[in-house]
Amino acid sequence: MLRRVIRPLTAAALMLQAAPVLAQEVLDTDPNTLAPSKDPKRTANGLAQTPPMGWNSWNKFACNVNEAVIRKTADAMASNGMKAAGYEYIVIDDCWHGTRDANGFITEDRTRFPGGMKALGDYIHAKGLKFGIYSDAGTKTCGGRPGSQGHEYQDALQYARWGVDYLKYDWCSTGVRNAEEAYATMADALRATERPILFSLCEWGNSRPWLWGAKIGNMWRTTGDITDKWEGKHGYSWGVASIVDLNEPLWPFAAPGHWNDPDMLEVGNGGLSDTEYRAHFSLWAMMAAPLIAGNDVAGMSAATRDILLNKDVIAVDQDSLGAQGHRVARDGKQEIWVKPMADGGRTLLLWNRGEAPARIVADWPKLGLPTGISLHGRNLWTHKDLGRLSKSYGAEVAPHGVVMIRLFS
Ligand code: GLA
């Protein structure tokens, strides 16, 4: 429980202050429980009006990232339909760093990135894509490379010089640092470069960034790391279905400009069936989550490509209303989810988490619709038109599978 003691300063004390300070706050508990920021000077950067889309190196390549991987990924994304479908950012995650130079500027690891970051950014931009990079609010990244603590403005300046468009900012080696302060400092540093840089907060949800992150960043991780498994907690990581349960209740906090981030996609990494990957992708779209592919997009199977490039499902994620869909009914292992859409319609998701096929029926009141209304239906995975539907929609759903329906008038 936060107890906050606010001592108003006297007029005499105020006159002695160099900067205008209206109240002095004494906190007697964990600073990470601070209330949402009320700083009126802090404004959102205007980016990410729909959930960011792109690719990140971590889920597939972890610390084995290098220039060849990034160039190959850029080539693939520009030509395999991903760019046309909206995947935009190529984000180099951890382990790209070299040391700091004599003036404290961060350099790239020249063994892994012999051409340097500026040339790599130019290459990505020439393909019509955008360039993302990774750092950490502490003294070291999670992979043990130099963190940005104490170098925020210098690092932001260096990224801007390299042409960076996106920063993922992690939370390892932060000690007792206050999360809101740490992320606000880097947000201010990015703003000072005058380059539009999307800011991705990777603080794992520890100090509830959904309460204070809206004017600081464009997306915030709500959980620990995803892993290419169906459910459960595996060390520090979570299976796909378990991540969904952690991210789902946060639906009121997502809106254009700032999104809940249940972590990057595992689609195509081999640990799940295609049915499960379709469910994974559908649930991310229902939750208006950033769609950051995490597989080897230069060597993916046709089945993986069909999932990542399903334009009907992507359109649900990218809907301009920006509402995060959520669960409206659960019966044992069967769930009904709804996402309100900009055209006044709904996207309906029937999700069977059980081990046997199950029939799931959603009636209109569960979707917030009057019983008398009839709506047009379209199945977003079979792409079949379902004609006009009234009162309810039901379907048999495969184990661990989904049926995803767009309802519109
Ligand atoms: C943390 C993050 C991951 C990834 C790794 C890199 O675990 O949550 O997404 O960036 O660090 O070391």
Automatic annotation (TrEMBL):
<protein>
    <recommendedName>
        <fullName>Alpha-galactosidase</fullName>
        <ecNumber>3.2.1.22</ecNumber>
    </recommendedName>
</protein>
<dbReference type="GO" id="GO:0016787">
    <property type="term" value="F:hydrolase activity"/>
</dbReference>
<keyword id="KW-1015">Disulfide bond</keyword>
<dbReference type="InterPro" id="IPR017853">
    <property type="entry name" value="GH"/>
</dbReference>
<dbReference type="InterPro" id="IPR013780">
    <property type="entry name" value="Glyco_hydro_b"/>
</dbReference>
<dbReference type="InterPro" id="IPR041233">
    <property type="entry name" value="Melibiase_C"/>
</dbReference>
<dbReference type="Pfam" id="PF17801">
    <property type="entry name" value="Melibiase_C"/>
</dbReference>
<dbReference type="InterPro" id="IPR000111">
    <property type="entry name" value="Glyco_hydro_27/36_CS"/>
</dbReference>
<feature type="signal peptide">
    <location>
        <begin position="1"/>
        <end position="23"/>
    </location>
</feature>
<dbReference type="InterPro" id="IPR002241">
    <property type="entry name" value="Glyco_hydro_27"/>
</dbReference>
<keyword id="KW-0326">Glycosidase</keyword>
<keyword id="KW-0378">Hydrolase</keyword>
<feature type="region of interest" description="Disordered">
    <location>
        <begin position="30"/>
        <end position="49"/>
    </location>
</feature>
<feature type="domain" description="Alpha galactosidase C-terminal">
    <location>
        <begin position="331"/>
        <end position="407"/>
    </location>
</feature>
<comment type="similarity">
    <text>Belongs to the glycosyl hydrolase 27 family.</text>
</comment>
<dbReference type="Pfam" id="PF16499">
    <property type="entry name" value="Melibiase_2"/>
</dbReference>
<keyword id="KW-0732">Signal</keyword>
<dbReference type="InterPro" id="IPR013785">
    <property type="entry name" value="Aldolase_TIM"/>
</dbReference>
